Amino acid sequence: MRSNFFLVLLSSGFFQSNIHAQPPSKLWYNRPATQWVESLPLGNGHIGAMVFGGVDEELIQLNESTLYSGGPVKKIINPDAYTYLRQIREALLKEADYSKANVLAKKMQGFFSESYMPLADVMIRQDFHNRQPATYRRELDLQDAIVTTSFTINGVTYQRELFTSAPANAFVMRITASRKAALDFDIATASQLHYRVAVKGSNEIVVNGKAPAHVDPSYYNPKDREHVIYEDTGGCNGMRFRYNIKVLSADGEITADTTGIHVKNATAVTIFITAATSFNGFDKCPDKEGKDENAIAASFMKNAVAQPYAQLKAAHVKDYQRYFNRVLFTVRDTTGVNKNSLLPTDERLKDYSDGAYDPFMETLYFQYGRYLLISSSRPGAPPANLQGIWNKELRAPWSSNYTININTQMNYWPAESTNLSEMHLPLLQWLKGLSVNGARIARELYHCNGWVAHHNSDIWGCANPVGDLGAGDPVWANWYMGANWLCQHLWEHYAFTMDKNFLREAYPIMKQAALFSLDWLVKDSSGYWVTAPSTSPENKFRDAKGRPQAVSVATTMDMSIIWDLFTNVIEASRALAMDEAFRKRLSRVKKDLYPMRIGSNGELLEWYKPFPETDPQHRHVSHLFGLHPGRQISKIGTPEFFAAAKKTLEIRGDAGTGWSRGWKINWWARLQDGNHAYKLIRQLLNYSGADGKSGGGTYPNLFDAHPPFQIDGNFAGTAGITEMLLQSHLGEIHLLPALPSAWEQGEVKGLKARGGFTVDIRWAKDRLVSATVTPVANGVCRIRNNNNFSVNALLASREGDDFVLSVKMKKGQHYHVLSDN
């Protein structure tokens, strides 16, 4: 029998803070890392570090978040591009000649984006004369963002404690020995970039260097071409960088020379590393107009070394925990004490992959995604890129850039819902520069108003279709919806925070993207507004002759993104009580957008026509944008398309790369099928060895395996788990919409819902026990019940088999759903 629940409004004094005590959340290992995807990540939004935990040699691979090749995008990209647009449209709309359209699309491409660079390797060498440690442990504690390595050799216990402080903007490492004067080690450093080492005093070295003026993508390797270019004689040379390494100790002897820093007979040593580049904004040459990286790095160092280690550490932990501790998530292990709890994380992940029941791995993975976002995306720094903030390659996979046909957006799916709105700001600030360049591209390439962005971008705000003026495949290069999709993030930040000052600043960027779409749309023979040319990211269809094609008309993703953009701009206009004429114009066009259609198998069609796909199980399922992250498809609002979306996923299957599995978790959560979403969580957490040969899944350090590493799968996994517990995209709070049977009992605190609500939920035996909703502003709270709990029908409006409860709430007031059991 279903339980009854009481609905209670309580004053703000009853409610506890949303800063929660966290259960233990550690990644730990009983051996050093031998591969990069076994090492442990640290980051403060500016400095990224991968810690290997070696005994005789500790390797720390460093990044600085602004260190990219290249400089501002060229003022003129492809002035003849516009002449081909009319020809492409004729080929598509009149001739149905998709091969011709594909050839012409290549003629509208620009240059490749630039690449994210590695900063340095730092090696700490201790000579133990090949003695093996009697004990060894390395760990990353998600509760304080500190990596610790400890081992015992010849009766002496050595400990290294490492963190990247955001308040001090410094990497800090404390090395101690249990026996006095037992520390003897050397610090050396190197960079894959051009660099030189200088000595500053007896305990500090300074490294100055320069990034290349251009780096080709790792997948672009034409013969007779230099792929890493340092001097750009006709434009802007690459940015400068500097990092300082300084060592302090109360005892022992410290000396420095150009080979590094040398420590002898010490007991406790603190190592500081600060870094800076000459990056001065997306539109400034980092060489000619760059910031003074020397002064910046030196000032960071001066501030860091002036503080006692304990004070530095306490400030770091306090700063980090004010974000991390906002959300608690626990699932009760119904088996009691799990024998896997004693295993190192990599072995525990292997057992989980083999089918072991271990909800700790799922809650750990959820919080790890939040940890990675806090570490790689901080206000004042660039957005998290394809690898977050961590990259060891001179030519990184896919340039470690901003891939804006899914991956960059996916990075920020958990930002608002898991109570990390501040970590969203780097992306939202970066859009300002991208929109400036995008407006130039819209005018030059298409003679359109507004702004546009395509498949790839970088710290310089590259907005053109990439491809080195014709070398890119239109299946990925010529995609025109990047700006429109990114504008969804502006709206989402407002929807979760209800910050109208932010919305006033964001509205012009959203409106300009909508203006481009209004100019880009054309009428087809049926009188619908369509996009032409149009692609569905990285997927192809077969034309009437069976040939693979990429360029088409009005792909479902195009039309869904434009529907989403127009809807958001209309709602933003209403919220701001402005721009009524433009709002009405969008509403008229939106009404006649080319509609979604259902195929003969009951699936949602991806293309303008029911073309057969070249790869029915393709990793991209872009035409389900309207289900997630959009809000066009829903069980109540569009039941026929809701069913078609489910059929599409069944046909597509559950296989895929790491990020693809992550997106599928979110789709199945929106389909309210918690057990299928949970099945995909287990697939996403499939152990992938350090060599990546096991395919998509999760590496030993819990990084997402595309393969190789892409961080978007981590973020999509965290976001997907959140969607299973709480949804709010339809203007109402839906509690436990996709709770899997494997999570029989649990609790989540501190999640965020659109409308500016903080939500706590407890459940048991697959049913809601209690929930608490707290608003940040006055308004109406609407809560949907899908038979997870009972409500007094007199307080609710009936919609089918569901109930929707509407309650007027004041800022700071707390609404509780409480069980009578």
Structure description:
Helix 9 (421-446) packs parallel to helix 11 (500-520), helix 10 (482-497) packs across helix 12 and helix 11 (500-520) packs across helix 12. Among the domains are: 5-20 and 738-819, Golgi alpha-mannosidase II (Immunoglobulin-like, Sandwich); 31-68 and 115-324, Beta-galactosidase, Chain A, domain 5 (Distorted Sandwich); 88-109 and 434-614, Glycosyltransferase, CATH 1.50.10.10. The protein is globular. The termini are close together. It is of the alpha+beta class. The chain is 28% helix and 24% strand. It has 17 helices and 37 strands. It has a 9-stranded antiparallel sheet with strand order 2-7-8-9-10-19-16-13-12. A 7-stranded antiparallel sheet has the order 3-4-5-6-11-18-17. The protein has a 6-stranded antiparallel sheet with strand order 1-37-33-32-31-20.
In short:
The chain has 17 helices and 37 strands. Helix 6 (359-376) packs across helix 17, helix 9 (421-446) runs antiparallel to helix 10 and helix 15 (658-670) packs parallel to helix 17 (712-725).
